[in-house]
Write a structure and sequence with these properties.
about 35% helix, alpha/beta, TIM Barrel, six-stranded mixed beta sheet, binds iron/sulfur cluster, about 450 residues
Length: about 450
C-alpha cells in the first residue's frame, strides 16, 4: 500500500481539474485528525466542537485519553504553508491515531501528514454568544451551536431518533448512541428542545453576531408521535416560532424525512425556504439494507416521488437531498470497486439534477458506534470521494444548474461548508449559466 502522501500525489495528478485542497479535505473527513497536546492547549481559547448532531468522530469518547471531546475546535481553516493552500474549512473529526495531525512548530499551528507539514492551521474565533447561558442555565452551545465557520445555526431540536435498534436505525448513523455517550460525559445535551429555548438562544446570538446567515432545524425521525405531535407538527413549531420573532433574518432550512406534499406545504407556510429530504444512498438494494426504518415506513420509490413533489412546493433549487458519500463502498454489502460505486451514485445525481434538484453530500464518517462503522474503520477509498467530487460538479455543469443556495459563496478559497468539499469544487462562481438564489452571492463569506 502506498503511503498516504503518495496516494494524495497520485490523485492530484489524476484529477488536476479539482483543487488539491479538496483532496486533502476529503481524506481528513474520512480519516479524522489528531492533535498534539500543545495544539490542544492553544485550542482552549477558540470555538470548541459542540457535537451538533452525530458524533462525527473516529473513536468513541471513552477512548479519548486527552479528553479531546471537550478540547478540539469545531473546525479548522487550512491556508498557505508549503502547499500554498487557498483557504479551506474542515470539520474536526477526532482520531488520535490519524496520519493527519495538528501540531505547533516554530510557534505556528500547522497541519502535518505523516510528519510532513501541509498547511497552516487557523482555529475559529470563540464567539461572544458561546460565553452566554439561557435563563435555565443551559449553554448556547447546547441549544444553538454554529458550524460552517459561523455561517449556519445548527438546531438539532430532537437529539434522538424513533428508528430504534438494528432493525430500524440507519446503519451509518450514531445519533442515539452519541446522545448516550454525550450525556455520560457530563456535557449539557438536551434531548428535546422547546421552541421557547430555541428563540431565547437566538435572541442571545442576535445581540452580538453578524456572521450567521442560515439556520437548520433537524433531529431524529418521528415515526409515531413526540409530545403528542407527528413529525411535521413537531418540527414546524420551530421555524414558525423563529420566523415570528425574527422574520426573514436567516435563510431557513429543515432536514426531516420525505413527507407527503400537503405536510411539506406546512413547512413552506411557516416560512421555511429550503427542504432537505435526505436520500442517503441511491442504489435500491443498499437503500433497503442501510435505511431499513425508512424502507419499512416510507419506501425508496415513495421517498423519491416525495422529493420531486416537494420541488413543486419549494421550487426544485430549494429541495436539497443529502447523501452520505462513501457508504456505497462499505463492507460487507457495498460495491466492490470505485467505478461501480461512482456509476451508481452518478446515476442518482443525474436523475435528480435532470429535474433541477441538486443533491449535496456529507462525507461518510465511519463512527465506531454505528453499525457500518464497526466493520469499516478505514471508511471508503479516498479515490471514491475524489471521483465523486468530479461527478457531482460535472453533472451540475451538464444541467447548467447554480450552486445550491443556503451554503454561502461557493468556490475554493471562499466556501465554508465543512463536512464535504462539494462547495469547494464549484467553478464559475456557481452560476453555470443560471442565476443563483437570492441573498447568497456577496454575503460576508
Ligand atoms: S432517520 Fe436514520 S439518519 Fe436520520 S436520525 Fe434516524 S437513524 Fe439517523
Amino acid at each position: 500500500m502506498d503511503s498516504r502522501v503518495e496516494q494524495i500525489e497520485q490523485l492530484k495528478a489524476k484529477y488536476p481539474d479539482l483543487p488539491a485542497e479538496a483532496i486533502y479535505k476529503e481524506d481528513m473527513l474520512r480519516t479524522g485528525i489528531g492533535f498534539s497536546e500543545d495544539s490542544l492547549l492553544i485550542a482552549s481559547g477558540f470555538k470548541p466542537k459542540a457535537y451538533f448532531i452525530f458524533s462525527f468522530d473516529l473513536v468513541p469518547i471513552s477512548e479519548m485519553s486527552a479528553r479531546e471531546n471537550f478540547r478540539v475546535p469545531e473546525e479548522i481553516a487550512l491556508e498557505g504553508g508549503k502547499e500554498a493552500f487557498r483557504r479551506v474549512i474542515v470539520s474536526v473529526r477526532v482520531n488520535p491515531s490519524s496520519p493527519y495531525r495538528v501540531e505547533v512548530r516554530d510557534g505556528r499551528l500547522v497541519l502535518c501528514l505523516e510528519g510532513e507539514e501541509v498547511a497552516d492551521v487557523v482555529y475559529p474565533e470563540y464567539p461572544e454568544y458561546y460565553r452566554r447561558k439561557l435563563s435555565s442555565g443551559k449553554p448556547v452551545t447546547d441549544i444553538a451551536p454554529t458550524i460552517e465557520w459561523g455561517y449556519l445555526l445548527y438546531l438539532t431540536v430532537f437529539r434522538l431518533c424513533q428508528y430504534f435498534g438494528r432493525q430500524e436505525e440507519c446503519q451509518f448513523c450514531d445519533i442515539n448512541e452519541n446522545y448516550r455517550q454525550q450525556k455520560k460525559s457530563g456535557r449539557s445535551y438536551t434531548g428535546v428542545k422547546s421552541p421557547e429555548e430555541i428563540v431565547e438562544a437566538l435572541e442571545i446570538i442576535a445581540e452580538t453576531d453578524s456572521d450567521s446567515r442560515a439556520y437548520t432545524v433537524t433531529g431524529g425521525s418521528v415515526t409515531s408521535e413526540l409530545q403528542g405531535k407527528n413529525e411535521v407538527e413537531f418540527y414546524s413549531q420551530y421555524p414558525e416560532a423563529i420566523e415570528r420573532r425574527f422574520p426573514g433574518r436567516w435563510i431557513s432550512k429543515v432536514v426531516v424525512q420525505a413527507l407527503p406534499r400537503e405536510q411539506v406545504q406546512r413547512f413552506k407556510d411557516v416560512g421555511v425556504q429550503i427542504y432537505h429530504p435526505n436520500y442517503e444512498v441511491w442504489d435500491p438494494r443498499l437503500f433497503e439494507i442501510f435505511c431499513a426504518g425508512k424502507t419499512r415506513y416510507i419506501g425508496r420509490s415513495e421517498w423519491i416521488r416525495r422529493i420531486l413533489d416537494a420541488a413543486g412546493v419549494f421550487g426544485p433549487e430549494h429541495v436539497i437531498p443529502n447523501f452520505v458519500a462513501g457508504i456505497e463502498m462499505s463492507r460487507p454489502n457495498g460495491f466492490e470497486t470505485v467505478e461501480q460505486a461512482l456509476a451508481s451514485t452518478g446515476e442518482g445525481l443525474d436523475f435528480f439534477m435532470s429535474h433541477g434538484v441538486v443533491p449535496r453530500f456529507t462525507t461518510w464518517c465511519p463512527e465506531p458506534l454505528s453499525v457500518l462503522g464497526k466493520d469499516n474503520a478505514g471508511g471508503a477509498p479516498l479515490e471514491y470521494h475524489v471521483g465523486l467530487l468530479r461527478v457531482w460538479r460535472d453533472t451540475l455543469e451538464k444541467y447548467g444548474l447554480p450552486a445550491p443556495p443556503g451554503y454561502g459563496v461557493p468556490g475554493i478559497g471562499q466556501a465554508v461548508f465543512s463536512v464535504s468539499s462539494f462547495m469547494d469544487v464549484v467553478r464559475n462562481g456557481g452560476q453555470n449559466g443560471k442565476s443563483s438564489s437570492k441573498g447568497e452571492q456577496g454575503t460576508k463569506h
